[in-house]
Structure to design on (312 residues):
């Protein structure tokens, strides 16, 4: 079997994170300027499955890991989904430019890239839906109760309007989007934040449901603005979405500072994205203001920033 390589992009959620876990709609776009790559190389028959994660400095043999480990779980899930009894000896080399624990889809990119890489190496030609389903099963292990939006946008690599347990609706953007992503440098694990929001929902369902319903309406309005290319409208709705997330305790002073800095520097709108409590702020900007907004967000305390273009 010849070596095989596959990759998957990052993502950002423009509208509806957290509410999407409870059945409300959300909108996400792929970030193709960052990605995870996995190369699969065959090993000799008497060798084992070897994993090299370049970014994490990991050099592991799968047989030596506990079954609960994410690599073991991913391989087991892929093996079962492809109805195989065993996987051949191989080396997986993983490298990524997607920051981890930053809300930009690194775990979804892992789930999609490893499924693509191993199935491709073994000669399977999976349909996108099949690949997405396997990736979702792997995501469940990493996230607990994911809505499925992350693996779906990463798998299809297109802007999506998404509701849990339904096929994605592919959005046709009226105008391209210029985004500035500002990393707060504060790690945040989505799984933990989702558990915390569940606790809040159990304690005060009325309040949280009210925020979710508001976010759902914002997302539906945003869908129309995105389709007709009403950039100012999208920006205003991003700010409203940020305020709802803040009310639920998902923002931080630094995230608010980054949102405000982006607006003062000319962004149409900005909000925290993904799990919250750290990670990234996404700003929608006029193309000629992208550098000014990026600079302002760095001055407001971002650890790093990047510009990402979402084509129509
Ligand atoms: C994480 O990118 C988005 C959340 O809504 C979780 C999920 O949808 O699985 C916070």
């Amino acid at each position: 079997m010849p070596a095989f390589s596959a990759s998957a992009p990052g993502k950002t959620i423009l509208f509806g994170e957290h509410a999407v876990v409870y059945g409300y709609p959300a909108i996400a776009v792929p970030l193709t300027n960052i990605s995870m790559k996995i190369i699969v190389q065959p090993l000799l028959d008497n060798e084992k499955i070897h994993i090299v994660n370049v970014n994490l400095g990991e050099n592991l043999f799968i047989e030596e890991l506990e079954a609960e480990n994410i690599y073991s779980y991913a391989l087991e899930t892929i093996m079962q989904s492809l109805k195989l009894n065993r996987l051949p000896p191989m080396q997986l080399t993983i490298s990524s430019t997607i920051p981890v624990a930053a809300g930009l889809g690194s775990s979804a990119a892992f789930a999609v890239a490893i499924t693509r890489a191993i199935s491709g190496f073994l000669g399977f030609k999976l349909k996108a839906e099949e690949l997405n389903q396997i990736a979702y099963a792997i995501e469940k292990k990493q996230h607990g109760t994911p809505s499925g939006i992350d693996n779906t946008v990463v798998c299809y690599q297109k802007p999506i309007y998404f509701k849990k347990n339904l096929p994605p609706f592919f959005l046709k953007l009226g105008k391209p989007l210029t985004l500035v992503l500002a990393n707060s440098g504060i790690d945040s694990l989505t799984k933990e934040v989702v558990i915390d929001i569940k606790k809040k929902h159990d304690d005060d369902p009325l309040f949280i449901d009210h925020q979710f319903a508001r976010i759902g309406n914002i997302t539906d309005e945003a869908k129309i603005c995105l389709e007709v290319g009403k950039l100012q409208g999208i920006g205003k709705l991003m700010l409203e979405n940020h305020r709802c997330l803040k009310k639920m305790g998902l923002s931080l002073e630094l995230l608010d500072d980054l949102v405000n800095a982006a607006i003062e520097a000319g962004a149409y709108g900005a909000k925290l994205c993904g799990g919250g409590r750290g990670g990234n702020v996404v700003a929608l900007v006029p193309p000629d203001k992208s550098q000014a907004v990026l600079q302002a967000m760095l001055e407001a305390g971002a650890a790093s920033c990047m510009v990402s273009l979402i084509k129509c």
